[in-house]
Amino acid sequence: MLNPFEGLEAVTFAYRVFLVLCLPVCAWVAWSDLSTMKIPNKAVLAVMAIFALAGPVLLPLEPWAWRWLNFVVVLLIGFVLNAVAHVGAGDAKFAAAAAPFIAPTHLPIVLPVFAAFLLGAFAAHRLLRAIPAVRRLTPGWVSWTRKDFPMGLALVGTFLFYLSLMAFPSLVAFLFGATGAATT
């Protein structure tokens, strides 16, 4: 029998599986945040369940276990930001749920990517909400009338971009001129 994944490195394969599993949840998060300005706890739990159940099968056990520390650190930072900077609790919880998927050594890449997605998502949201035809297509979307911004959109974009880079290392070579395999 022909194995379509033959020759793929284990980490690349793992992130392709993570990407496929997380994509529908991320679509739900983005839609929900845009339409209601809330990220459902069930979506946060779904992302956590994906890492909890698929992670130990797809990743080496020790790095998988240590990555849960990412969850704790990001959740604590998120709670502080919620209290002092009015970052949404759903945003903080989603960021924490996504954090274990990210290798700590990739933080210097992920933070600027998040900043870019945050600026891009904010600009796109503000532009689209000013277009009457778009608002007619999405009546009742809470984010169109609120001063605050549905940051879940930028979090989802960053998370899916990271999963895609890990799943398809050739994108890294194309975008950054890098070569080699993804690391855990």
Automatic annotation (TrEMBL):
Would I find Membrane among this entry's keywords? yes
Locate the transmembrane regions by residue number: 12-31, 43-61, 68-89, 109-128, 149-176
Ranges for domain Prepilin type IV endopeptidase peptidase come to 22-123
Q: Which domain of life is it from?
A: Bacteria
The protein's GO terms of the molecular function aspect are: aspartic-type endopeptidase activity
InterPro entries named among the record's database cross-references? Prepilin_IV_endopep_pep (IPR000045)
Keyword Transmembrane helix belongs to the record: yes
UniProt keywords (A-Z) are:
Membrane, Transmembrane, Transmembrane helix
Pfam families registered for this protein in UniProt: Peptidase_A24
One Gene Ontology cellular component term attached to this UniProt record is: membrane
Q: What is this protein called?
A: Prepilin peptidase CpaA
